[in-house]
Design a protein that fits this description.
Length: 311
Protein backbone atom coordinates (compact mmCIF):
# COMPACT_ATOMS: atom_id res chain seq x y z
CA UNK A 1 0.00 0.00 0.00
CA UNK A 2 1.33 3.47 -0.91
CA UNK A 3 1.02 6.61 1.25
CA UNK A 4 2.28 10.16 0.96
CA UNK A 5 4.85 11.15 3.56
CA UNK A 6 7.39 13.89 4.28
CA UNK A 7 10.80 12.53 3.37
CA UNK A 8 14.35 13.39 2.32
CA UNK A 9 16.87 11.78 -0.01
CA UNK A 10 20.08 13.33 1.36
CA UNK A 11 21.14 14.56 4.78
CA UNK A 12 21.24 18.32 4.78
CA UNK A 13 19.29 21.56 4.87
CA UNK A 14 15.54 22.08 4.91
CA UNK A 15 15.48 22.15 1.10
CA UNK A 16 16.05 18.35 1.14
CA UNK A 17 12.46 17.78 2.37
CA UNK A 18 9.64 16.88 -0.01
CA UNK A 19 6.32 15.05 -0.07
CA UNK A 20 6.94 11.64 -1.60
CA UNK A 21 5.14 8.37 -2.14
CA UNK A 22 6.15 5.53 0.19
CA UNK A 23 5.22 1.85 -0.04
CA UNK A 24 4.47 0.44 3.41
CA UNK A 25 6.64 -2.66 3.90
CA UNK A 26 5.43 -6.09 5.07
CA UNK A 27 4.59 -5.99 8.79
CA UNK A 28 7.18 -7.80 10.97
CA UNK A 29 6.18 -9.94 13.98
CA UNK A 30 6.85 -7.23 16.58
CA UNK A 31 5.42 -4.33 14.57
CA UNK A 32 2.10 -2.50 14.32
CA UNK A 33 0.55 -0.55 11.46
CA UNK A 34 -1.13 2.69 12.50
CA UNK A 35 -3.59 5.01 10.79
CA UNK A 36 -2.11 8.33 11.96
CA UNK A 37 -4.59 10.90 13.30
CA UNK A 38 -2.02 13.42 14.56
CA UNK A 39 1.78 13.80 14.54
CA UNK A 40 3.74 16.39 16.52
CA UNK A 41 6.85 18.26 15.36
CA UNK A 42 9.95 17.77 17.57
CA UNK A 43 13.48 19.23 17.38
CA UNK A 44 14.59 15.62 16.70
CA UNK A 45 12.89 15.81 13.28
CA UNK A 46 15.34 18.33 11.81
CA UNK A 47 18.33 16.90 13.72
CA UNK A 48 17.71 13.57 11.94
CA UNK A 49 17.35 15.29 8.54
CA UNK A 50 20.53 17.34 9.11
CA UNK A 51 22.44 14.12 9.63
CA UNK A 52 23.22 14.57 13.33
CA UNK A 53 22.39 10.86 13.77
CA UNK A 54 23.72 9.55 10.47
CA UNK A 55 26.03 7.08 12.19
CA UNK A 56 23.02 5.15 13.48
CA UNK A 57 20.55 6.06 10.71
CA UNK A 58 22.74 4.91 7.83
CA UNK A 59 22.74 5.96 4.19
CA UNK A 60 19.69 4.22 2.72
CA UNK A 61 17.35 6.83 1.19
CA UNK A 62 14.68 8.10 0.99
CA UNK A 63 14.04 8.39 4.73
CA UNK A 64 10.85 9.56 6.37
CA UNK A 65 10.55 12.50 8.76
CA UNK A 66 8.56 12.65 11.99
CA UNK A 67 8.61 10.72 15.23
CA UNK A 68 5.73 11.32 17.68
CA UNK A 69 2.18 10.42 16.69
CA UNK A 70 -1.23 9.24 17.87
CA UNK A 71 -3.60 7.10 15.85
CA UNK A 72 -5.58 3.90 15.45
CA UNK A 73 -4.08 0.41 15.10
CA UNK A 74 -4.83 -1.11 11.68
CA UNK A 75 -2.77 -4.32 11.85
CA UNK A 76 -0.55 -6.10 14.36
CA UNK A 77 2.38 -8.49 13.83
CA UNK A 78 2.24 -12.13 14.94
CA UNK A 79 4.06 -11.54 18.26
CA UNK A 80 2.24 -8.38 19.37
CA UNK A 81 0.31 -8.75 22.60
CA UNK A 82 -1.83 -6.29 24.60
CA UNK A 83 -2.52 -4.14 21.52
CA UNK A 84 -5.22 -5.04 19.02
CA UNK A 85 -6.68 -3.72 15.78
CA UNK A 86 -8.90 -0.72 16.52
CA UNK A 87 -7.03 0.41 19.66
CA UNK A 88 -6.35 4.15 19.97
CA UNK A 89 -2.63 4.51 20.69
CA UNK A 90 0.16 7.06 20.93
CA UNK A 91 3.87 6.55 20.50
CA UNK A 92 6.97 7.18 18.49
CA UNK A 93 9.23 5.75 15.80
CA UNK A 94 12.54 3.94 16.08
CA UNK A 95 15.07 6.81 16.14
CA UNK A 96 16.87 5.09 13.22
CA UNK A 97 13.68 5.00 11.11
CA UNK A 98 11.56 8.15 11.42
CA UNK A 99 8.44 8.59 9.28
CA UNK A 100 5.46 9.69 11.38
CA UNK A 101 4.55 12.56 9.04
CA UNK A 102 2.40 10.25 6.93
CA UNK A 103 -1.22 9.09 6.99
CA UNK A 104 -0.04 5.56 7.84
CA UNK A 105 3.10 4.24 9.51
CA UNK A 106 4.70 1.07 10.83
CA UNK A 107 6.56 1.05 14.15
CA UNK A 108 7.58 -1.48 16.79
CA UNK A 109 4.93 -2.30 19.39
CA UNK A 110 7.38 -1.42 22.21
CA UNK A 111 7.20 2.22 21.12
CA UNK A 112 3.43 2.59 21.60
CA UNK A 113 0.84 2.48 24.41
CA UNK A 114 -2.89 3.00 24.63
CA UNK A 115 -3.81 6.68 24.27
CA UNK A 116 -5.11 8.41 27.40
CA UNK A 117 -8.89 8.51 26.98
CA UNK A 118 -9.33 12.06 28.30
CA UNK A 119 -7.25 13.89 25.66
CA UNK A 120 -7.42 14.27 21.89
CA UNK A 121 -5.19 12.54 19.34
CA UNK A 122 -3.46 15.90 18.79
CA UNK A 123 -2.70 16.36 22.49
CA UNK A 124 -1.54 12.73 22.82
CA UNK A 125 0.90 13.17 19.92
CA UNK A 126 2.69 15.91 21.92
CA UNK A 127 3.69 13.46 24.66
CA UNK A 128 5.87 10.48 23.67
CA UNK A 129 9.44 11.78 23.31
CA UNK A 130 9.07 14.71 25.73
CA UNK A 131 7.39 12.79 28.53
CA UNK A 132 9.59 9.69 28.27
CA UNK A 133 12.84 11.67 28.31
CA UNK A 134 11.58 13.71 31.29
CA UNK A 135 10.63 10.45 33.04
CA UNK A 136 14.09 9.00 32.35
CA UNK A 137 15.84 12.16 33.60
CA UNK A 138 13.84 12.51 36.83
CA UNK A 139 13.02 8.93 37.83
CA UNK A 140 15.66 6.70 36.20
CA UNK A 141 18.87 8.75 36.00
CA UNK A 142 18.00 10.57 39.22
CA UNK A 143 15.42 9.71 41.88
CA UNK A 144 13.25 12.77 42.37
CA UNK A 145 10.96 12.55 45.42
CA UNK A 146 9.13 14.85 47.81
CA UNK A 147 12.27 16.22 49.50
CA UNK A 148 14.11 16.92 46.25
CA UNK A 149 14.91 20.43 45.03
CA UNK A 150 14.93 20.46 41.23
CA UNK A 151 15.87 23.13 38.69
CA UNK A 152 14.39 22.68 35.21
CA UNK A 153 16.29 24.74 32.63
CA UNK A 154 13.71 25.66 29.95
CA UNK A 155 10.74 24.91 32.20
CA UNK A 156 7.95 25.82 29.77
CA UNK A 157 9.28 24.00 26.69
CA UNK A 158 7.76 20.71 25.55
CA UNK A 159 10.14 18.60 27.66
CA UNK A 160 10.47 21.21 30.43
CA UNK A 161 6.76 21.65 31.13
CA UNK A 162 6.26 17.88 31.33
CA UNK A 163 9.31 17.60 33.60
CA UNK A 164 7.90 20.27 35.93
CA UNK A 165 4.59 18.42 36.20
CA UNK A 166 6.27 15.03 36.78
CA UNK A 167 8.52 16.44 39.52
CA UNK A 168 5.59 18.29 41.17
CA UNK A 169 3.52 15.09 41.09
CA UNK A 170 6.26 13.45 43.22
CA UNK A 171 6.03 16.40 45.63
CA UNK A 172 9.39 17.94 44.76
CA UNK A 173 10.18 21.66 45.08
CA UNK A 174 10.65 22.88 41.53
CA UNK A 175 12.45 25.95 40.24
CA UNK A 176 12.55 26.72 36.53
CA UNK A 177 14.15 29.02 34.01
CA UNK A 178 12.31 30.61 31.10
CA UNK A 179 12.20 33.84 29.12
CA UNK A 180 10.27 36.78 30.64
CA UNK A 181 7.30 36.25 28.29
CA UNK A 182 6.83 32.70 29.63
CA UNK A 183 6.53 33.63 33.32
CA UNK A 184 2.73 33.26 33.41
CA UNK A 185 2.93 29.82 31.77
CA UNK A 186 5.55 28.73 34.32
CA UNK A 187 3.27 29.85 37.17
CA UNK A 188 0.33 28.03 35.59
CA UNK A 189 2.14 24.68 35.59
CA UNK A 190 3.20 25.15 39.22
CA UNK A 191 6.87 26.23 39.13
CA UNK A 192 7.74 27.29 42.71
CA UNK A 193 10.49 29.74 41.81
CA UNK A 194 11.00 31.27 38.36
CA UNK A 195 14.29 32.58 36.98
CA UNK A 196 14.78 34.56 33.79
CA UNK A 197 17.48 32.67 31.92
CA UNK A 198 18.67 35.94 30.34
CA UNK A 199 19.66 37.34 33.73
CA UNK A 200 23.37 36.57 34.30
CA UNK A 201 24.14 34.31 37.28
CA UNK A 202 20.44 34.13 38.24
CA UNK A 203 20.96 30.98 40.30
CA UNK A 204 23.16 32.79 42.80
CA UNK A 205 19.89 34.10 44.30
CA UNK A 206 18.73 30.59 45.12
CA UNK A 207 19.71 27.68 47.34
CA UNK A 208 21.49 24.71 45.77
CA UNK A 209 19.68 21.87 43.98
CA UNK A 210 19.65 18.07 44.18
CA UNK A 211 18.91 17.89 40.45
CA UNK A 212 19.55 20.35 37.65
CA UNK A 213 17.80 19.14 34.48
CA UNK A 214 18.96 21.06 31.41
CA UNK A 215 16.15 20.43 28.91
CA UNK A 216 17.25 23.28 26.65
CA UNK A 217 20.80 22.00 26.17
CA UNK A 218 22.12 25.53 26.53
CA UNK A 219 23.54 25.53 30.05
CA UNK A 220 27.30 25.32 30.52
CA UNK A 221 28.19 22.17 32.44
CA UNK A 222 30.30 24.20 34.87
CA UNK A 223 27.34 26.52 35.59
CA UNK A 224 25.07 23.51 36.13
CA UNK A 225 27.58 21.90 38.51
CA UNK A 226 27.90 25.16 40.48
CA UNK A 227 24.18 24.97 41.34
CA UNK A 228 24.36 21.46 42.80
CA UNK A 229 24.42 20.24 46.38
CA UNK A 230 27.44 17.96 47.11
CA UNK A 231 25.66 14.80 45.88
CA UNK A 232 23.52 16.58 43.27
CA UNK A 233 23.21 15.52 39.63
CA UNK A 234 23.19 17.49 36.40
CA UNK A 235 21.08 15.80 33.69
CA UNK A 236 21.73 16.53 30.02
CA UNK A 237 19.42 15.39 27.20
CA UNK A 238 21.46 17.06 24.46
CA UNK A 239 24.81 15.34 24.99
CA UNK A 240 27.64 15.42 22.47
CA UNK A 241 30.04 12.47 21.97
CA UNK A 242 32.62 14.54 23.91
CA UNK A 243 30.32 15.33 26.87
CA UNK A 244 29.23 11.67 27.03
CA UNK A 245 32.84 10.50 27.08
CA UNK A 246 34.14 13.02 29.59
CA UNK A 247 30.94 12.56 31.63
CA UNK A 248 31.95 8.96 32.33
CA UNK A 249 34.50 10.37 34.77
CA UNK A 250 32.16 12.90 36.42
CA UNK A 251 29.71 11.40 38.94
CA UNK A 252 27.63 14.61 38.89
CA UNK A 253 26.97 14.35 35.14
CA UNK A 254 24.20 12.17 33.71
CA UNK A 255 22.80 12.04 30.20
CA UNK A 256 19.78 10.24 28.90
CA UNK A 257 17.51 9.71 25.90
CA UNK A 258 13.78 9.19 25.42
CA UNK A 259 14.34 5.51 24.61
CA UNK A 260 15.36 4.95 28.26
CA UNK A 261 11.87 6.00 29.43
CA UNK A 262 9.85 4.43 26.61
CA UNK A 263 8.73 1.42 28.66
CA UNK A 264 6.93 3.93 30.93
CA UNK A 265 4.64 5.26 28.18
CA UNK A 266 1.66 3.47 29.76
CA UNK A 267 2.52 5.01 33.19
CA UNK A 268 2.57 8.40 31.47
CA UNK A 269 -0.88 7.73 29.97
CA UNK A 270 -2.15 6.83 33.45
CA UNK A 271 -0.90 10.15 34.90
CA UNK A 272 -2.60 12.02 32.06
CA UNK A 273 -5.89 10.21 32.80
CA UNK A 274 -5.57 11.16 36.48
CA UNK A 275 -5.24 14.80 35.42
CA UNK A 276 -1.65 15.03 36.73
CA UNK A 277 0.06 15.62 33.38
CA UNK A 278 -0.99 17.81 30.46
CA UNK A 279 0.94 18.31 27.22
CA UNK A 280 1.37 21.80 25.79
CA UNK A 281 -0.09 22.04 22.31
CA UNK A 282 0.67 25.16 20.28
CA UNK A 283 -1.34 24.77 17.08
CA UNK A 284 -2.72 22.28 14.57
CA UNK A 285 -1.84 22.31 10.86
CA UNK A 286 -2.71 20.33 7.72
CA UNK A 287 -0.30 17.79 6.21
CA UNK A 288 0.22 20.02 3.12
CA UNK A 289 1.71 22.79 5.33
CA UNK A 290 4.14 20.53 7.22
CA UNK A 291 7.36 21.47 5.40
CA UNK A 292 6.71 25.23 5.73
CA UNK A 293 5.96 24.84 9.45
CA UNK A 294 9.02 22.64 10.02
CA UNK A 295 11.20 25.35 8.48
CA UNK A 296 9.60 28.05 10.65
CA UNK A 297 10.07 26.06 13.87
CA UNK A 298 13.64 25.06 12.98
CA UNK A 299 14.39 28.78 12.55
CA UNK A 300 12.93 29.66 15.94
CA UNK A 301 9.75 31.18 14.45
CA UNK A 302 7.25 28.60 15.67
CA UNK A 303 4.55 29.02 18.30
CA UNK A 304 5.06 28.07 21.96
CA UNK A 305 4.04 24.44 22.55
CA UNK A 306 4.06 21.65 19.98
CA UNK A 307 2.81 22.12 16.43
CA UNK A 308 0.67 19.14 15.42
CA UNK A 309 -0.10 17.82 11.95
CA UNK A 310 -3.69 16.60 11.79
CA UNK A 311 -4.71 13.85 9.33
N1 LIG B 1 17.70 13.10 24.51
C1 LIG B 1 16.44 12.97 24.08
O1 LIG B 1 15.92 11.86 23.92
C2 LIG B 1 15.63 14.21 23.85
C3 LIG B 1 14.23 14.13 23.91
C4 LIG B 1 13.49 15.30 23.72
C5 LIG B 1 14.13 16.50 23.44
N2 LIG B 1 15.49 16.53 23.37
C6 LIG B 1 16.17 17.80 23.07
O2 LIG B 1 15.88 18.72 24.10
C7 LIG B 1 15.79 20.03 23.57
C8 LIG B 1 14.48 20.69 23.99
O3 LIG B 1 13.42 20.02 23.36
P1 LIG B 1 11.92 20.56 23.47
O4 LIG B 1 11.12 19.68 22.61
O5 LIG B 1 11.54 20.76 24.89
O6 LIG B 1 12.06 21.98 22.76
P2 LIG B 1 11.14 23.27 22.95
O7 LIG B 1 9.73 22.89 23.20
O8 LIG B 1 11.45 24.14 21.77
O9 LIG B 1 11.67 23.98 24.27
C9 LIG B 1 12.91 24.63 24.33
C10 LIG B 1 12.97 25.38 25.66
O10 LIG B 1 14.28 25.95 25.80
C11 LIG B 1 14.12 27.22 26.39
N3 LIG B 1 15.29 28.06 26.13
C12 LIG B 1 15.63 28.73 25.01
N4 LIG B 1 16.81 29.39 25.20
C13 LIG B 1 17.19 29.11 26.48
C14 LIG B 1 18.32 29.47 27.27
N5 LIG B 1 19.30 30.25 26.80
N6 LIG B 1 18.40 28.99 28.54
C15 LIG B 1 17.43 28.20 29.04
N7 LIG B 1 16.34 27.80 28.35
C16 LIG B 1 16.23 28.25 27.08
C17 LIG B 1 12.86 27.77 25.80
O11 LIG B 1 12.36 28.78 26.67
P3 LIG B 1 11.52 30.04 26.16
O12 LIG B 1 10.37 29.51 25.35
O13 LIG B 1 11.10 30.71 27.42
O14 LIG B 1 12.46 30.85 25.31
C18 LIG B 1 11.97 26.51 25.81
O15 LIG B 1 11.35 26.36 27.04
C19 LIG B 1 15.97 19.90 22.05
O16 LIG B 1 17.32 20.17 21.72
C20 LIG B 1 15.65 18.44 21.79
O17 LIG B 1 16.29 17.93 20.64
C21 LIG B 1 16.25 15.43 23.59
Amino acid sequence: MKVNRIQFSNYGSASEMYIGEYGLPQLKADEVQISVKAAAINPLDWKQRRGDMKLIMGKKFPKGIGNDFAGIVEAVGANVQNIKVGDEVFGTMDVKKPGAFASKLITQSKFIAKKPTNISFSEASCLPIGATVAWAALFLKTKVHKNTRVLINGCTGAVGSLAVQLAKEKGAWVAGTCSKTETEEAKKIGVDKIFDYNEPNYWKKSELFDVVFDTAGLMKQTDGFSMLKPNGKFVDINPTPKSMLTGLFKPKYKFTFATAGMKHLADIAELVEKGKLKPRIGKEINFENTIDELIKIENGKGVKGRTVIVF
